[in-house]
Amino acid sequence: MSVFCDVQQAAPVAVFKLTQDFSKDEFPNKVNLGVGAYRTNEGKPWVLPVVKKVEKLIVHDDRLNHEYLPILGLPEFRSSSSKIVLGDDSPAIREDRVGGVQCLGGTGALKIGAEFLRRFYNGNNNTKTPVYVSAPTWENHNALFNSAGFEDVRPYKYWDAEKRGLDLSGFLRDLESCPERSIFVLHACAHNPTGTDPTQEQWKQIAEVMMRRKLFVFFDSAYQGFASGNLDKDAWAVRYFVSMGIEMFCAQSFSKNFGLYNERVGNLTIVARDADNLKRVLSQMEKIVRTTWSNPPSQGARIVAVTLNSPELFSEWKDNVKTMADRVLLMRAQLKAKLQSLGTPGTWDHITDQIGMFSFTGLNSKQVEYMVKEKHIYLMASGRINMCGLTSKNIDYVAESIHEAVTKVQ
Amino acid sequence: MSLFSDVPQAPPVAVFKLTADFREDSHPQKVNLGVGAYRTDDCQPWVLPVVKKVERLLVEDNSLNHEYLPILGLPEFRSSASKVALGDDNPAIKENRVGAVQALGGTGALRIGADFLRRWYNGVNNAGTPVYVSAPTWENHNGVFTDAGFKDIRPYHYWDAAKRGLDLTGLLDDLEKAPEHSIFVLHACAHNPTGTDPTQEEWKTIAEVMKRRKLFPFFDSAYQGFASGNLEKDAWAIRFFVSQGFELFIAQSFSKNFGLYNERVGNLTVVSKDNENLTRVLSQMEKIVRTTWSNPPSQGARIVSKTLNSPELFAEWKDNVKTMADRVLLMRDQLKSKLIALGTPGTWDHITQQIGMFSFTGLNPKQVEYLIKEKHVYLMASGRINMCGLTSKNIDYVSQAIHEAVTKVQ
Fold this sequence. Notes:
The structure holds two protein chains of two kinds.
Chain A: H1 14-24, E1 31-32, H2 49-59, H3 75-86, H4 91-94, E2 98-104, H5 105-120, E3 131-135, H6 141-147, E4 153-157, E5 159-160, E6 165-166, H7 168-177, E7 183-187, H8 200-212, E8 216-221, H9 231-234, H10 236-243, E9 248-253, E10 265-271, H11 275-290, H12 298-308, H13 311-342, H14 349-353, E11 358-360, H15 365-375, E12 377-378, E13 384-386, H16 395-408
Parallel strand pairs in A: 1-12, 3-4, 3-7, 7-8, 8-9
Antiparallel strand pairs in A: 2-10, 5-6, 9-10, 11-13
Helix pairs in contact in A: 2-12, 2-13, 3-12, 5-11, 7-8, 8-10, 13-16, 15-16
Chain B: H1 14-24, E1 31-32, H2 49-60, H3 75-86, H4 91-94, E2 98-104, H5 105-120, E3 131-135, H6 141-147, E4 153-157, E5 159-160, E6 165-166, H7 168-177, E7 183-187, H8 200-212, E8 216-221, H9 231-234, H10 236-243, E9 248-253, E10 265-271, H11 275-290, H12 299-308, H13 311-342, H14 349-353, E11 358-360, H15 365-375, E12 377-378, E13 384-386, H16 395-408
Parallel strand pairs in B: 1-12, 3-4, 3-7, 7-8, 8-9
Antiparallel strand pairs in B: 2-10, 5-6, 9-10, 11-13
Helix pairs in contact in B: 2-12, 2-13, 3-12, 5-6, 5-11, 7-8, 8-10, 13-16, 15-16
């Protein structure tokens, strides 16, 4: 009799199951539009040239060793990461009220932030503080905040399926009617999975309500630079909120914009009212990190820090990012053009209106099933596609398949 | 008014505070016998030659990229890591009932194991299952299990200060009295901080009681190879327990034996009764990992995996490990001889009887304070010293300082 006999089988994570099914499929024209990682026009992963260059610099630098990093991470990584999102000349940084915690990707940054908030925000160990995540949102947000101890994770209105855009009035209504001090997880740019972001004017409205109702701002920033191709543009919302004097968290991921998915490079940026409050917050974050991973992994953080702190490499990196963002924009333009020329029923403007890696096609679950089973095109049940999975070689096949799905399946 | 005004300042982690104080000290003969990392005889960190070699191989390998690892980690790392602990030809492995989770160092492995046990062991979400840790133990054990949700963490008798050795009677007594199904955190070898391990006969007795009383063994294995210089010898206890049919966890760290401290290379080995139970356990571990760090960092795991899976590199690694272990043994020998030659009161056999990186000197807090403040020799308040901090250049100074502390301070 095993001590584990009552352990239930957990369901696999959907997006990885999709990739697994894709891998097993032998169909010659199969296409994977599932998991969110960049692909070249040859359908291959891309190690950024600047990353390759820096990895070589690091391996040949005999001054480096493998001694433990500080608990909060590599100092030059933390400061340059926070600068990337807030801007070099951010007044908050100059006022010494911005800190960073190097974390394991965006997930790790969300986790440490969530664990801190559960312990110290809105009272001590107040597990009942509502946490709002967008409807829909990244599949891991909900579970992550639950496992940090929050008992009340709720959706806020976000995607309007009918008009295929932002449900701003629903969103604002939820902001007005939620309990004060609720935590809101906001996507800094390139909303996952809808690709639909508030405009600057809409962000201003959102910020006004959040400030008035004392709601806590927790940004998830996984696509800075990747969305529009411009780092500052993609950070506008975060910087606007900071400029309004709000104390907030921003979970940053360098998985996508550095292509460093498997080195787990993330940063939790904390903006506090002043240095003293920041100091106490960071000291508690140390305690949380210590019992989770003790101190963070060096390799990815070093690559990012060396890059961000060298004008030449930084410039090369921005080029590499633009390369990725531009290819995505090209695929968006082409997919829409092809659907229009095929006369596929419906409007397809949302494909080019949406931003970032993902597009919320609007395909319903039956149509998605058709795509997967009949056409061997793998996408999420929600209708979300990863634009990076499109290439000049497969875009015709995909466009035709979408056409078939929409016309044959209701 | 800040959202964080009520957040208290957390005290720093003692061992890192010690190193911080050491750094600020400008005394020319200062010695750091605090944090547990290997140092050469020149008191420098040591990047293992085999690690340097493999890092160069990896950076030149254009078949590698940075795509996400599976949630449970790099497969070839997981299997080779478990083999190192259990032995290549372990029946449990052949019976397909051994699995693993690549984790963030030993800390991460402990944490995932603890999170799993709190959710699924001894009932569902039984936060009241007692968890026993040795008295004394690594300072972070308590925090890891507490943050995993366990409410009842207790000490088990281990160190006998009077006789400067293992309190076996006390230990066995605690095993007999512990509630059935309690979890026991056992140090696989080179006990931290006492350096005192049970003998093989003692382990057999411990195992017998644990089996009879249905106690769960959770091994912490951070020093395999480092303790005696021999991988198999250091894994004897673990392998004995497995041979007795226990289901158990092993939190392995490759921080010390690979000198890869900052790449966070760890592995949680799971031994279950059969493959079916193992599968369900691993599926739940995936869920836990997904909301903690999503998937683990690649660099360190690749280095270890490449090394363990190549006969040539594996042999070179074992050599490097023996180099470290031998230097520690030399320092133990010399420290004891010098104290005996100085006629320092007390017996000093424990210095050479103890095993691994640490020695529990037996110095009391006043004597420790004297060493730090008057002699600028930094060690933990418990009297624990890191033998790696000793070198041929400072060993006379340190022996002299200990002599003074023992004779002048009571």
